Amino acid sequence: MRYLSDILEGVAFTELQGSADVEISAVVFDSRKVEPGCLFVALKGTAVDGHDYIEQAVKQGAVAVICEDLPAHTAQEADFLMVANSAKALGTIAANFYENPSSNLKLVGVTGTNGKTTVATLLYKVFRDMGYKCGLLSTVENQVNGRIIPSTHTTPDPVVLNKLLADMVDEGCDYCFMEVSSHAVAQHRIEGLRFSGGIFTNLTHDHLDYHKTFESYLKAKKAFFDGLPKSAFALTNGDDKNGSVMLQNTSAHKKSYGLKSMADYRARIIENQFGGLLLNIDNEEVWFKLVGTFNAYNLLAVYAAAMLLEQDRSKVLISLSKLTGAEGRFEYIVAPNKVIGIVDYAHTPDAVQNVLSTVHDIRKGKEKVITVIGCGGDRDKTKRPIMAKVATEWSDKVILTSDNPRTEDPAQIIKDMEAGIDPAFKRNTLSIADRREAIRTACMLAQPGDIILLAGKGHEKYQEVNGVKNHFDDMEELEDQFKDMI
Ligand SMILES: CC(=O)N[C@H]1[C@@H](OP(=O)(O)OP(=O)(O)OC[C@H]2O[C@@H](n3ccc(=O)[nH]c3=O)[C@H](O)[C@@H]2O)O[C@H](CO)[C@@H](O)[C@@H]1O[C@H](C)C(=O)N[C@@H](C)C(=O)N[C@H](CCC(=O)O)C(=O)O
Ligand SMILES: Nc1ncnc2c1ncn2[C@@H]1O[C@H](COP(=O)(O)OP(=O)(O)OP(=O)(O)O)[C@@H](O)[C@H]1O
Ligand SMILES: N[C@H](CCC[C@H](N)C(=O)O)C(=O)O
Ligand SMILES: [Mg+2]
């Protein structure tokens, strides 16, 4: 149990109605989850306004309310606190409620359009391999020193986030590696956290449905670095054109990594093949199991962060060289007839281009590339034609299909994709809305040696249609088809 007055530290409130001398059983921001004794935080959301549920929350037993506007007629059965920004206050309060766990371990955040899961997961695996107790917060899953907790978001809400960090502290974790999404920064999910370091991967087109312009998307990412403390490191990708912008206003130690530019941590690709990457990393040649130029960046970011966390260079390189990547990121299997199938989470134009250019770089001869790809419903519509354009330009055959249509019509999403395809590439394109059927067709069309790329779903184990998540697993589908391909 905590007193309201105790968990308000760092919260600038403009008005208090009540004494704040009340015990708080939980911090809740959804009226449907209110239980007697809790603090209800009213948030202005993207769909509805939490302020409209204050009365319901108090009726259900909330003893205190944090809000931006005081409701006109609410029975004063609770303490009311006015703040300028409830979402910001929620972050700080959630951290206080769980006794600021981020100050009791070394927390490193990874942000950028692509590569966050890969970098955070590799860091988690390397540090565990070197003997540390660690936590991981990622799109694929959360982990508290090996214990898996399913994840619902890339970056969880502040209450779940601080609870998970507190569990990590309780279990004696030394480090936590977490993904920081642009939504999380914009919605203040990371407010009140104390980071020991921040890593930037890259910035390309995504989530413009939410951020509206590339400029405001960039600002959200940059705000993460602006908020880092002096004691932290801020590590950026020197080869990304926005890499230096990220660090413009940070007071953290500025460091960079890169394959092309002058950077504090440098690497050079010597070999890039299906079996892995040979990198010259800080003047040492090392083989890694991960594939593709984009993974050279991810590996270098991990290495640089480990150096900034004062780890032993050779131990880090030995650990890193043993690791495979995160689930659903360039995972491949080979059919008995030597068709290669790759499952990859590429769901942005840049990721699709990267993964396909990697396939081109590492294929042995003139084997054909067949790409199965869709775009998410209720997500950035402007990336659809570009993803389709890139896929058709970099593949011999493309099958447009569904990837979580959510509340949208799958046929319309496919039409949006088709609009981006150059007429010259249209004859190499099929549209099959049923993803299973699309994968089956790709397998039927493939000749020995050909490469099938299933893009967009990666680790996901579902196809989301109208709020229902039906079981669907790209790798499972591929394995099922491949067993008969002799
Ligand atoms: C668009 C978006 O980011 N939405 C997030 C946001 O919800 P919202 O603002 O839409 O909420 P709302 O429905 O408008 O409700 C406003 C407030 O009223 C409350 N409410 C609502 C109804 C009610 O009856 N009573 C009540 O109290 C809600 O609990 C909320 O506090 O805040 C919620 C709590 O933190 C999130 O769960 C929710 O994530 C939704 C489910 C989501 O799909 N988010 C995705 C887009 C997302 O966050 N993705 C990023 C990055 C993905 C990546 O690239 O990896 C991530 O970090 O996962
Ligand atoms: N450094 C990188 N640069 C560009 N593309 C990358 C990079 N790393 C991975 N990718 C591509 O992006 C896809 C997603 O990678 P990953 O899951 O690591 O990124 P993420 O930033 O966590 O994505 P999300 O925002 O959905 O959580 C991969 O499957 C791969 O196709
Ligand atoms: N986590 C990200 C990527 C989802 C990838 C793709 N499978 C989709 O559903 O669009 C999002 O929610 O935008
Ligand atoms: Mg991720």
UniProtKB/TrEMBL annotation:
<feature type="modified residue" description="N6-carboxylysine">
    <location>
        <position position="221"/>
    </location>
</feature>
<dbReference type="GO" id="GO:0051301">
    <property type="term" value="P:cell division"/>
</dbReference>
<dbReference type="InterPro" id="IPR036565">
    <property type="entry name" value="Mur-like_cat_sf"/>
</dbReference>
<feature type="binding site">
    <location>
        <position position="460"/>
    </location>
    <ligand>
        <name>meso-2,6-diaminopimelate</name>
    </ligand>
</feature>
<dbReference type="Pfam" id="PF01225">
    <property type="entry name" value="Mur_ligase"/>
</dbReference>
<comment type="pathway">
    <text>Cell wall biogenesis; peptidoglycan biosynthesis.</text>
</comment>
<feature type="binding site">
    <location>
        <position position="181"/>
    </location>
    <ligand>
        <name>UDP-N-acetyl-alpha-D-muramoyl-L-alanyl-D-glutamate</name>
    </ligand>
</feature>
<feature type="domain" description="Mur ligase central">
    <location>
        <begin position="110"/>
        <end position="306"/>
    </location>
</feature>
<dbReference type="InterPro" id="IPR035911">
    <property type="entry name" value="MurE/MurF_N"/>
</dbReference>
<dbReference type="GO" id="GO:0000287">
    <property type="term" value="F:magnesium ion binding"/>
</dbReference>
<keyword id="KW-0067">ATP-binding</keyword>
<dbReference type="GO" id="GO:0005737">
    <property type="term" value="C:cytoplasm"/>
</dbReference>
<feature type="short sequence motif" description="Meso-diaminopimelate recognition motif">
    <location>
        <begin position="403"/>
        <end position="406"/>
    </location>
</feature>
<dbReference type="InterPro" id="IPR036615">
    <property type="entry name" value="Mur_ligase_C_dom_sf"/>
</dbReference>
<keyword id="KW-0547">Nucleotide-binding</keyword>
<dbReference type="InterPro" id="IPR013221">
    <property type="entry name" value="Mur_ligase_cen"/>
</dbReference>
<feature type="binding site">
    <location>
        <position position="379"/>
    </location>
    <ligand>
        <name>meso-2,6-diaminopimelate</name>
    </ligand>
</feature>
<dbReference type="GO" id="GO:0008765">
    <property type="term" value="F:UDP-N-acetylmuramoylalanyl-D-glutamate-2,6-diaminopimelate ligase activity"/>
</dbReference>
<feature type="binding site">
    <location>
        <position position="189"/>
    </location>
    <ligand>
        <name>UDP-N-acetyl-alpha-D-muramoyl-L-alanyl-D-glutamate</name>
    </ligand>
</feature>
<keyword id="KW-0573">Peptidoglycan synthesis</keyword>
<dbReference type="GO" id="GO:0005524">
    <property type="term" value="F:ATP binding"/>
</dbReference>
<comment type="similarity">
    <text>Belongs to the MurCDEF family. MurE subfamily.</text>
</comment>
<dbReference type="GO" id="GO:0008360">
    <property type="term" value="P:regulation of cell shape"/>
</dbReference>
<comment type="function">
    <text>Catalyzes the addition of meso-diaminopimelic acid to the nucleotide precursor UDP-N-acetylmuramoyl-L-alanyl-D-glutamate (UMAG) in the biosynthesis of bacterial cell-wall peptidoglycan.</text>
</comment>
<keyword id="KW-0133">Cell shape</keyword>
<dbReference type="InterPro" id="IPR004101">
    <property type="entry name" value="Mur_ligase_C"/>
</dbReference>
<feature type="binding site">
    <location>
        <begin position="154"/>
        <end position="155"/>
    </location>
    <ligand>
        <name>UDP-N-acetyl-alpha-D-muramoyl-L-alanyl-D-glutamate</name>
    </ligand>
</feature>
<keyword id="KW-0460">Magnesium</keyword>
<feature type="binding site">
    <location>
        <position position="456"/>
    </location>
    <ligand>
        <name>meso-2,6-diaminopimelate</name>
    </ligand>
</feature>
<dbReference type="GO" id="GO:0071555">
    <property type="term" value="P:cell wall organization"/>
</dbReference>
<keyword id="KW-0132">Cell division</keyword>
<dbReference type="InterPro" id="IPR000713">
    <property type="entry name" value="Mur_ligase_N"/>
</dbReference>
<feature type="binding site">
    <location>
        <position position="31"/>
    </location>
    <ligand>
        <name>UDP-N-acetyl-alpha-D-muramoyl-L-alanyl-D-glutamate</name>
    </ligand>
</feature>
<keyword id="KW-0963">Cytoplasm</keyword>
<feature type="binding site">
    <location>
        <position position="187"/>
    </location>
    <ligand>
        <name>UDP-N-acetyl-alpha-D-muramoyl-L-alanyl-D-glutamate</name>
    </ligand>
</feature>
<keyword id="KW-0436">Ligase</keyword>
<feature type="binding site">
    <location>
        <begin position="112"/>
        <end position="118"/>
    </location>
    <ligand>
        <name>ATP</name>
    </ligand>
</feature>
<dbReference type="GO" id="GO:0009252">
    <property type="term" value="P:peptidoglycan biosynthetic process"/>
</dbReference>
<keyword id="KW-0131">Cell cycle</keyword>
<keyword id="KW-0961">Cell wall biogenesis/degradation</keyword>
<dbReference type="Pfam" id="PF08245">
    <property type="entry name" value="Mur_ligase_M"/>
</dbReference>
<feature type="binding site">
    <location>
        <begin position="403"/>
        <end position="406"/>
    </location>
    <ligand>
        <name>meso-2,6-diaminopimelate</name>
    </ligand>
</feature>
